[in-house]
């Protein structure tokens, strides 16, 4: 088992805010790859609509980034991941896409110390987040199903202030 802890939840659940607070407290963290993928493609001249129109390509690109990132991490180091490989399965299911074979293979070997599933906050839209409230809830449900099917403890993080959420997670290590 690794010493990695996943921070996950549906869109607009405060994942990145929480991960950034943990980073500010001295913990090692990762970035959220869907947003990073979008940002890289936008730099290349594509619009978010163009990127999102090719969902299979988008999901594969995000998965590839996640696979590379997790392969490069030290399994003994405590790291908080802003989403992880299993999130991809939830999104493939949400989009009704056949999961990539590399994803299915990776899911057989993923190993996390704990998964922190953040309760949803009110949906806030931005340039990269295109889901509506129904999508937000469906994705959160799918993430819950995926992570509870894995042999990793899942800890639900209630709606609290950002600092209190970070405190809750640190005290649950």
TrEMBL record:
InterPro entries: NadR/Ttd14_AAA_dom, P-loop_NTPase. Coiled coil: none annotated. Residues 5-162 form the NadR/Ttd14 AAA domain. This is ATPase. It comes from Arthrobacter russicus.
